[in-house]
Design goal:
By secondary structure, this protein is α+β, with helices and mostly antiparallel strands. It is 42% helix and 22% strand. The strands form 2 sheets. It has a 6-stranded antiparallel β-sheet. A 5-stranded mixed β-sheet has the order 1-2-3-4-5, sandwiched between helices. Helix 2 (19-37) crosses helix 3 (39-49). The longest helix is centred in the last third of the chain and has 25 residues, at 287-311.
């Protein structure tokens, strides 16, 4: 099981009908909370969003009004932030591209504001083209948002602010919108992952599962195979490769109670083992002992799946 299941934003995201709108509303919920309860974090984040265009020192976050999808004759920017002395529009992009005249139209909205301190911001996943960047006052990437929230986490003392910021950073990270530094441990980590997956390969072969195929997705790596007529997958999620995972698909409801192990997740049966737990000490074992452990993990799960076959 991925740690996504413990993330507030991921749990809500699966019900979203429009990804970009959900991401915008989720981000604004964090902004609004910080404006009310964590002034230093809000000012730090707003300063990053506006590219340092304004001197925000001494401003009261409660004076900022944050709205989404405000409609103008020129269009509907994703986020509008107003203040007696500031006017800020933020256009949010996750996957979709910009409309042909979108930024030009939003510049007209900015131009119509009587305030001197105004800013049009483009918030995107990837760096925009030079022509798009020239049409806004600030270009900000989602990774900049994550980095700023991480900085705020080091000093915040407000519990709910810490929770929301940490959850949103994890949400961005899991969706590939922010990556941590790639350091010198990369090579060793890749080699260890290859060795672990090779152990799953051997364990699945030993269990005599059929139709085994290596399955690599953006969020996980492992093997798809069949036990009887039940489709299964076993391997690790990239988000937490220290947890061995086994899934059986399209299984009857309540089967986990019959088996006395694992949990139900939608129409799947899932069993996992934390390899770094004190009861396992997987990473302190010899390679031979590690292989035996993975073999037993897979064998126990395959035996459970055979029992599922009998109860279908």
């Amino acid at each position: 099981m991925s740690k996504n299941s413990d993330n507030l934003f991921f749990c809500l995201h699966k019900y979203a009908q429009q990804d970009e709108n959900f991401t915008t509303e989720a981000f604004v919920s964090v902004l609004r909370h910080l404006a009310r309860h964590d002034s230093p974090a809000f000012i730090l984040l707003l300063g990053r969003l506006t590219g340092g265009a304004f001197d925000l020192e001494g401003e009261h976050p409660s004076d900022f009004k944050i709205e989404t999808q405000t409609t103008f004759s020129e269009g509907t920017p994703d986020i509008q932030i107003t203040h007696p002395r500031f006017f800020i529009l933020i256009e949010v992009k996750v996957e979709a591209g910009l409309g042909e005249t979108q930024l030009v139209r939003y510049q007209k909205i900015i131009g119509n504001s009587p305030l001197d301190r105004k800013c049009l911001v483009l918030l995107t996943r990837c760096p925009p083209s030079e022509s798009d960047a020239a049409q806004v006052n600030a270009c900000v990437l989602w990774r900049h948002v994550a980095e700023t929230l991480n900085s705020a986490l080091r000093t915040t003392t407000e519990v709910i602010s810490e929770f929301l910021m940490r959850q949103f950073v994890e949400f961005l990270k899991e969706r590939g919108m922010w990556m941590e530094l790639v350091d010198w441990e990369l090579k060793g980590g890749v080699e260890s992952l290859k060795a672990l997956i090779a152990m799953f390969d051997g364990a699945i072969q030993l269990a005599k599962a059929s139709e085994k195929i290596r399955a690599i997705r953006w969020d996980r790596i492992g093997y798809s195979f069949k036990v009887g007529d039940i489709n299964c997958w076993s391997g690790v999620y990239f988000s937490n490769p220290t947890i061995a995972v086994y899934k059986a698909y399209d299984i009857p409801k309540g089967i986990e109670k019959v088996l006395g192990m694992g949990v139900a997740e939608k129409s799947h049966w899932l069993y996992k083992q934390e390899l770094d737990s004190e009861n396992v000490y997987f990473f302190s074992r010899t390679p031979e002992s590690q292989q035996v452990f993975i073999e037993k993990f897979v064998a126990d799960c395959c035996s459970a799946v055979l029992r599922i076959n009998k109860n279908k």
